[in-house]
Design brief:
Elements lengths: L11 H47 L9 H8 E3 L4 E5 L24 E7 L2 E9 L5 E7 H37 L1 H11 L19 H47 L5 H32 L6 E4 H18 L3 E5 L5 E4 L1 H18 L5 E9 L2 E8 L30 H11 L3 E6 L7 E8 L3
Parallel strand pairs: 7-9
Antiparallel strand pairs: 1-2, 2-5, 3-4, 4-5, 6-8, 9-10, 10-12, 11-12
């Protein structure tokens, strides 16, 4: 099975094909050997019958042909098959009908079928004496007999030799069709995201495999419940912590308005920064919980340009505070299959990261373009960028690039990837356009049908 296949030796289909093919070949070889022996024996019996019939026909002559030419004509019944007829000398005073050319059979041969040696050649000879004492010998060379018998036996084997590869190929095709439901099931699992824990469809699967799929479905249900409990706990904990954190932030703001020594004010600033970081963390935890629990059935066609306009309204105050040029290049648009809330979270996280990590007076540009059936969102900034060795790590939860001095939780890009995978989009990081430094983020969506 494509994508999940192990070594060839571990493939059940491969082993079944090998063993069934080997069994077919062995059985066909045994049947071929037996058929060859039987066909050869049957051919020899037919050749003996031919000698007998020829002998009986010739023996109907009343006497030996008187002239040598007549005897020679009677002596060559089938020269191509090397079936020859010879009149033997008799003991009653008849003239010797010995021919002038070989083979010459001895007149001492008895009636019936026999194998004799004539010179260096072995012959199968049938001798018959009729009522008038005429003795006729009908012979055939054994090498010719064997060659003819083998040819006849090989013709008998031809159907078996032709059927063996057909059977082996048929076994392979049948096994492929039988294992097709497994490949379909594997393809369905491979195309799923980690958030899709729905039951597997076991329709069309063999009865022997159905309990296995039912057990997997039960495991997926238990995993879904466990993950739901964890996400609910995170969401509830974040909700419960927001109120006391808000109260603590207000108290810190009121305390900041009071007169206090410089050392106390520096510690208060550190406390306020910690509270702000915690509030950001709680907001992102809530966002992550919502995106992971969002049903995919609610997805629809969403205009990417419309989402960008709404996100820009929220991000422009932050960009103006840092004097960052934030804008959209071009007027291209594309529709993607997604939930509006998810797409807004994705775009907002990307812009928030770009604005936060871009120094004052920098620039953040957004570009939308369509390439074939794909819609690409490109975000370029003039910030410090991300080293190639860390570009995959930044998608891990709570991972932050050291030395940037920005307040954050390390969940922004992790949430962005989770949302992107839920809508079957991909995210890639690279360097921004030279000669400027910065980061380029490419999000590739599938265009909505």
């Amino acid at each position: 099975m494509d994508g999940v296949e192990g070594p060839v030796g571990a493939s059940l289909r491969w082993r079944l094909s090998m063993w069934l093919s080997l069994a077919i070949i062995l059985i066909a070889a045994a049947a071929g050997v037996i058929s060859f022996i039987w066909a050869t024996d049957e051919a020899h019996k037919l050749q003996d019958l031919q000698l007998r019939q020829t002998g009986y026909l010739i023996s109907r002559l009343d006497a030996v042909p008187s002239s040598p030419l007549a005897r020679e004509r009677a002596g060559d019944v089938d020269f191509d098959a090397r079936v020859v007829v010879r009149f033997l000398r008799t003991g009653n005073g008849l003239p010797a009908p010995l021919p002038a050319r070989p083979p010459v059979f001895s007149s001492l041969l008895g009636d019936g079928l026999q194998t004799v040696l004539v010179g260096n050649e072995q012959w199968r000879v049938f001798v018959k004496t009729n009522a008038r004492g005429v003795r006729v010998a009908v012979g055939q060379q054994t090498t010719v007999r064997d060659a003819t018998a083998r040819a006849s036996a090989l013709r008998t084997l031809m159907p078996i030799l032709l059927l063996v590869p057909v059977l082996v190929l048929l076994v392979g095709v049948l096994l492929q069709q039988m294992f097709k439901p497994f490949e379909t099931l594997a393809g369905e699992l491979a195309s799923r995201t980690e958030a899709d824990l729905g039951p597997l469809d076991h329709a069309g699967l063999p009865a022997e495999v159905r309990p296995f799929v039912v057990a997997i479905n039960a495991l997926l249900v238990r995993m879904g419940r466990s993950l739901a409990v964890q996400r609910r706990f995170i969401a509830d904990a974040a909700h419960e912590l927001r109120s006391p954190l808000t109260a603590m932030s207000l108290q810190a703001e009121r305390l900041g308005a009071a007169n206090m020594p410089q050392e106390a004010r520096s510690r208060l600033d550190a406390l306020s920064a910690g509270l702000q970081r915690t509030r950001i963390l709680l907001d992102q935890l809530l966002t992550l919980a919502r995106t992971q629990e969002a049903p995919r059935e609610a997805a629809g066609k969403v205009s990417l340009a419309h989402v960008i306009r709404e996100v820009l309204e929220d991000m422009i105050p932050l960009a103006e505070a840092k004097k960052i040029d934030l804008g959209v290049i071009g007027e291209a648009d594309g529709e993607v299959q997604a939930r509006f809330v998810d797409l807004k979270v994705l775009v907002k996280n990307l812009l928030d990261n770009a604005v936060r990590y871009t120094p004052e007076g920098g620039r953040v540009d957004l570009t939308v373009r369509c390439e074939g059936r794909a819609v690409i969102l490109q975000v370029d900034d003039t910030g410090p960028g991300i080293a190639p060795a860390e570009r995959e790590r930044v998608f891990d939860p709570f991972y932050r690039v050291l030395g940037n001095g920005e307040i954050g939780s390390g969940l922004g890009l992790s949430i962005t990837r989770t949302v992107a995978e839920s809508m079957q989009a991909t995210i890639a990081l690279s360097d921004s356009r030279p000669p400027e430094t910065g980061l380029r983020v490419l999000v590739t969506f599938r265009q909505a049908a």
